[in-house]
């Protein structure tokens, strides 16, 4: 057995004018890091966010579906409970955040239609419907004709679908902007630099060193850097979260501005299984249509490829042929932080003072409210709420806390 070697090897410079040692350093200024910082500051904790570009991250690419029912997968029943809990908080969360920031977040309770194109796709959707029913979820089977009555732009080849009125959407870019403003108004400090190393003394995490040679010392440190959380130097190897990047490419188009959200094009989120492949079309109230997403295990690559764009447009065209008439305004690729069980890692690690909030994978925007509440409670009160305990990092093993909080790790 040996002690972990997490103490800094180079002196850390302080930044003049920087706030004195904060209670909490949140490393990562995406929507997860920001919501945690906001909630911590609301609870009276002096909080600093470390990120070169706060408000960035995977949310710049994400479509923002709040879809616990249509994104249900076999074996993810525990995650379903957390997803449903967070979805239920969204209306109040959106209202509170909009009030605190003065910025709308594009929350739309528009519902979702999940459709199938060929008979294999329909069989797949029938299985999803059966799973939803077993889980007690609200979902209604529709014929192809009924689907087209709801969404007339859908192709005549749609064979059937599921109407899920409880799956909604928010605009992740607006959400990030609103969280940034709410943090600023709540007194959160920002250090616009990259954290390169965790520091610890006497078996306790006490902040991070930044790439400009300065540091942030804090009583508690939260690692909320998405896929990059698996890479921070100074974190004992055993405690590095097992998250990996899963690339997603998305397209943004502009819908005609007829009356009402989405104009005449789509009135609600439409997901589809198109010859075995998954696609979604998310119409925003501001006329934007987001089409996503590929799912690619290619490490840290974020190239937008001709093949990715082609696949999305091909399937979207098969689903709603009019899509190819719309202006294409943006292509983008981002990295989902995926964990071995597709669920997030939330809570303390075996290194006292170091907490994780990562691994949100397909559900980062959906899980933003519950993550903020749970981590705020942990940071201010020392306990995670019951609902979040199945998602602590310890479920994947790692080091154990020894006497006096000194971390011991096996050779
Ligand atoms: N939740 C949508 C996606 O991960 O693509």
UniProtKB/TrEMBL annotation:
<dbReference type="GO" id="GO:0043799">
    <property type="term" value="F:glycine oxidase activity"/>
</dbReference>
<dbReference type="InterPro" id="IPR012727">
    <property type="entry name" value="Gly_oxidase_ThiO"/>
</dbReference>
<feature type="domain" description="FAD dependent oxidoreductase">
    <location>
        <begin position="23"/>
        <end position="378"/>
    </location>
</feature>
<protein>
    <recommendedName>
        <fullName>glycine oxidase</fullName>
        <ecNumber>1.4.3.19</ecNumber>
    </recommendedName>
</protein>
<keyword id="KW-0560">Oxidoreductase</keyword>
<feature type="region of interest" description="Disordered">
    <location>
        <begin position="1"/>
        <end position="20"/>
    </location>
</feature>
<feature type="compositionally biased region" description="Polar residues">
    <location>
        <begin position="1"/>
        <end position="10"/>
    </location>
</feature>
<dbReference type="InterPro" id="IPR036188">
    <property type="entry name" value="FAD/NAD-bd_sf"/>
</dbReference>
<comment type="pathway">
    <text>Cofactor biosynthesis; thiamine diphosphate biosynthesis.</text>
</comment>
<keyword id="KW-0784">Thiamine biosynthesis</keyword>
<dbReference type="InterPro" id="IPR006076">
    <property type="entry name" value="FAD-dep_OxRdtase"/>
</dbReference>
<dbReference type="Pfam" id="PF01266">
    <property type="entry name" value="DAO"/>
</dbReference>
